[in-house]
């Protein structure tokens, strides 16, 4: 028994060591989310879905406004407004903040809608089975809780990706500040194909998504909570015309709802939804260079707010 | 909990230590621990499932004793009661909605308005497996092949034994139950073999099956959008996904049981090296195919009697086998196809031609064996398309799509798929080289220390570099 246990223990230790080594190499090439949950707790944050995840560069905001931001946006499936995302944001926040922070809360009709017959059925919300609801910590480095059970690739791949690609050279790179850089071919043919595919995807969503009062309430709850930590600014990201039209089809009354929300919670709204002369990788997500340019515009708006 | 989960990583060593260091004084205490941890394991899925397995166990325990004390006539009624109880649970949880929806569709097709309500029924994990396990107990007692046990704890531990509870092997009481009556003492050789078998099982599951899964899901979700060559890749990858998944689980289950001193039956014996369909069914999901042979095929008359009789019995077996897999016409059609493949062999008395190991004593197969294995693999893979597709029409679209000039074009696969191909090739090579063993790493017991360590480390590194650890469920859990 002793010999058996000692041999097994050696192999187990080796395996654990390999995992620790692998996570040591984890970086923005690892996957779309790891670096967001393996970075320290934050003060000022950007929250929302993939439009803000790819569309806002905290590095540019820092350069322009002097303020540190962390982009804690995920995807339409991981971070629509609801109990899971609310708890995750709370966990990511530095404890003890009572003022001085700024929160950019990106909103659109999809992030307050559910893909369920009963859109308020919290037990079956789409994010329930995803990692934000099953990891304890969103600020551990290394984050074993995320790594075990949420990587959809091999652990050895983490090392390979790090060694092969380096920073920002792969198809995607998640920066330490949470900005997701996507490198795609922006020639007309490739872009048209992606737009067409995305449009088909959103048309399917349109048939199934319905406005959720529960999600809307959680958005309000989040704003009220963040208001106790600093200033909250609601944000509507730029989107191409055709997708903007689809969003309005989902919720024609969205603008009115947003207006009443800003009044109730006394928050500002920066509405860039009609700024559609940017380049989008797929009609929804800003291309990285255009995200940079947009971040400058956003910074100007933030500076103007601060001056007032 | 899944074998490839963090919970199991903690569960197994804790149970191992408790079993061998704390609860090892008496056999009854060992069995009590097995029973308790098995219920914890099963209840981890959903605690409500426990009531079913508890009722099933208690019913068959008491019926088993009653059957053994009864004459043939009364015994028949008691056996019928066991069959009714167990199959009713299975039928309701697994097939109720299927029958309701199929019946509604039939009436609607006949022009009659019908819209019966389906229920939101959660399928208890492993119900198809443990139901068959308890049924074999009752039937063997009725046939006087087995004495019932008065030891309720042992019996319940046999039914719920966690390594094989949720996806087999479907153990016969005559094999597994007696092992609960003897105190298990630690056997380092058996435990080491168990660890090696688990390692091999994990390799097949997380390296082969879960890497194939990504491409298979993409291809099968939109077969109409794929080139013929991509459809071919999808079908081949599914053949290896289901093999890696199911045989991998079996290896983990059998290996895990060895850690606790139990020997389970072999469930897979290199089925893709089969030279014909009959051999395939002697090597694929052996515990199920032998169960159907012993409890359905032979009682129906087997292959004795007229040609029509043989055809009828073969059809019944394969259709029921298909149906066992799930409440969908695709599974029945899959079973039907295998019946069509099998019948020519049976009717020409060639179904027992290939009983030994292929190319035994030789390094390579000859041309005839190679052709036979390839041809059989093609037949099996084509049938798998029906098994995997959501409907028969989608499967038909899939197969028709493969008949196209784009079959000769290079499929648009990424580097991950290439690597997966490489891993499949490596697995087949390794399995071929060690085909006389129960599982490839079993041969390490005869090798020098350096070779043992090298191959073990190599498998670990393959798992580390190429294994997917996202908690992908084992395919056969849905059965």
Note down, in words, how this protein is organized.
The complex is a heterodimer of chains A (308) and B (479). Chain A is α/β, with parallel strands linked by helices. Chain A has helices spanning 2-24, 34-37, 50-55, 58-65, 83-92, 144-150, 155-165, 188-208, 213-227, 241-250, 254-265, 288-307, and strands spanning 45-47, 70-71, 101-106, 113-114, 172-174, 180-182, 210-211, 230-236, 268-271. Chain A has a 5-stranded parallel β-sheet with strand order 2-1-3-8-9. A two-stranded antiparallel sheet of chain A has the order 4-7. With 479 residues, chain B is mainly alpha-helical. Helix content of chain B is 67%, strand content 0%. Chain B is built from 18 helices and no strands. Chain B has helices spanning 6-22, 27-43, 49-69, 72-109, 127-142, 152-160, 162-165, 173-176, 188-221, 228-259, 277-283, 286-300, 307-325, 329-347, 367-388, 392-401, 415-433, 449-466. Chain B is globular. The chains are: A alpha/beta (308), B mainly alpha (479). Chains A and B meet through α1, α6 and α7 of A and α9 and α18 of B.
Keywords for this entry:
heterodimer, A: 308 residues, alpha/beta, five-stranded parallel beta sheet, two-stranded antiparallel ribbon, 9 strands, B: 479 residues, mainly alpha, globular
Nutshell version of this structure?
Chain A is of the alpha/beta class and 308 residues long.
User: Main sheet of chain A, how many strands, which sense, barrel?
Assistant: 5 strands, parallel
Which blocks of ≥5 consecutive residues of chain B have pLDDT under 50? none
Overall helicity of chain B? 55-70%
Strand composition percent of chain B:
under 5%
The residue fraction in helices of chain A comes out at 40-55%
The overall pLDDT average of chain B reads: 91
The major beta sheet of chain B can be summarized as: none
Strand percent estimate of chain A: 5-15%
* Rg of Cα set of chain B: 23 Å
Largest interface: A-B, 21 and 22 residues
Radius of gyration of chain A: 20 Å
């Amino acid at each position: 028994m002793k010999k058996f246990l000692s041999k097994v223990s050696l192999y187990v230790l080796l395996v654990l060591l390999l995992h620790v080594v692998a996570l040591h190499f984890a970086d923005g090439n690892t996957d779309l989310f790891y670096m967001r949950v393996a970075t320290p707790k934050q003060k000022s944050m950007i929250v929302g879905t993939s439009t803000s995840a790819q569309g806002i560069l905290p590095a540019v905001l820092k350069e322009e406004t002097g303020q540190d931001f962390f982009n804690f946006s995920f995807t339409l499936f991981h971070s629509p407004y609801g109990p899971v995302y609310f708890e995750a944001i709370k966990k990511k926040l530095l404890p003890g903040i009572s003022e001085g922070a700024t929160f950019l809360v990106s909103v659109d009709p999809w992030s307050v809608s559910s893909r369920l017959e009963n859109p308020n059925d919290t037990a079956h919300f789409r994010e329930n089975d995803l990692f934000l609801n099953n990891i304890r910590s969103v600020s551990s480095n290394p984050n074993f809780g995320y790594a075990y059970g949420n990587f959809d690739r091999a652990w050895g791949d983490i090392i390979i990706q790090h060694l092969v690609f380096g920073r920002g050279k792969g198809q995607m790179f998640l920066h330490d500040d949470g900005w997701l850089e996507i490198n795609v071919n922006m020639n007309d043919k490739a872009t048209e194909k992606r737009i067409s595919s995305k449009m088909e995807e959103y048309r399917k969503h349109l048939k199934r998504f319905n406005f959720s009062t529960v999600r809307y309430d959680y958005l309000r709850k989040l704003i009220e909570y963040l208001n106790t930590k600093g200033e909250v600014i609601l944000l509507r990201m730029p989107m191409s015309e055709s997708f903007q039209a689809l969003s309005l089809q989902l919720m024609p009354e969205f603008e009115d709802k947003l207006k009443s929300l800003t009044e109730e919670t006394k928050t500002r709204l920066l509405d860039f939804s009609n700024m559609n002369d940017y380049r989008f990788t797929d009609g929804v997500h800003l291309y990285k260079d255009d995200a940079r340019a947009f971040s400058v515009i956003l910074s100007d708006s933030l500076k103007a707010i601060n001056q007032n | 909990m899944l074998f490839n989960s963090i919970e199991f990583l903690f569960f197994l060593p804790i149970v191992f230590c408790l079993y061998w260091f704390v609860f090892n004084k008496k056999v009854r205490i060992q069995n009590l621990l097995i029973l308790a941890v098995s219920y914890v394991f099963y209840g981890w899925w959903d605690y409500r499932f426990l009531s079913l397995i508890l009722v099933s166990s208690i019913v068959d325990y008491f019926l088993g004793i009653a059957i053994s004390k009864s004459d043939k006539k009364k015994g028949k009624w008691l056996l019928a009661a066991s069959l009714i109880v167990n199959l009713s649970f299975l039928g309701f949880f697994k097939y109720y909605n299927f029958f309701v929806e199929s019946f509604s569709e039939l009436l609607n097709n006949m022009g009659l308005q019908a819209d019966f309500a389906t229920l939101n029924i959660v399928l208890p994990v492993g119900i198809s497996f443990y139901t068959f396990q308890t049924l074999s107990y009752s039937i063997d007692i009725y046939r006087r092949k087995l004495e019932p046990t008065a030891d309720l704890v042992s019996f319940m531990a046999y039914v719920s034994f966690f390594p094989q509870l949720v996806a087999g092997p479907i153990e016969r009481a005559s094999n597994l139950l007696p092992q609960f009556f003897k105190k298990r003492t630690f056997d380092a050789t058996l435990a080491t073999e168990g660890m090696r078998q688990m390692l091999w099982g994990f390799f097949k599951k997380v390296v082969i099956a879960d890497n194939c899964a990504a491409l298979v899901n993409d291809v099968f979700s939109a077969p109409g959008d794929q080139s013929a060559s991509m459809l071919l890749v999808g079908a081949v990858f599914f053949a290896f996904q289901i093999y890696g998944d199911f045989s991998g689980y079996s290896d983990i289950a059998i290996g895990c049981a060895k850690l606790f001193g139990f020997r389970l039956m072999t469930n897979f014996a290199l089925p893709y090296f089969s030279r014909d369909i009959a051999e395939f069914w002697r090597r694929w999901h052996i515990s199920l195919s032998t169960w159907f042979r012993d409890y359905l095929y032979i009682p129906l008359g087997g292959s004795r009697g007229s040609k029509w009789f043989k055809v009828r019995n073969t059809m019944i077996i394969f259709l029921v086998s298909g149906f066992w897999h799930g409440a969908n016409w695709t599974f029945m059609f899959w079973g039907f196809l295998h019946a069509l493949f099998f019948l020519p062999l049976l009717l020409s008395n060639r179904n027992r031609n290939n009983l030994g190991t292929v190319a035994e004593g030789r390094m390579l197969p000859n041309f005839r064996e190679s052709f036979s294995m390839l041809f059989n693999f093609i037949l099996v893979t084509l049938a798998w398309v029906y098994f995997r597709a959501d409907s028969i029409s989608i499967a038909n679209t899939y197969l028709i799509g493969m008949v196209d000039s784009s079959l000769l074009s290079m499929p648009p696969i990424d580097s991950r798929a290439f690597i997966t191909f490489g891993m499949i090739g490596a697995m087949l090579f390794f399995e071929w080289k060690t085909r006389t063993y129960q599982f490839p790493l079993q041969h390490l017991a005869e090798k020098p220390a350096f070779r043992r360590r090298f191959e073990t480390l190599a498998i670990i590194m393959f798992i580390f570099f190429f294994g997917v650890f996202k908690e992908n469920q084992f395919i056969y859990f849905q059965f």
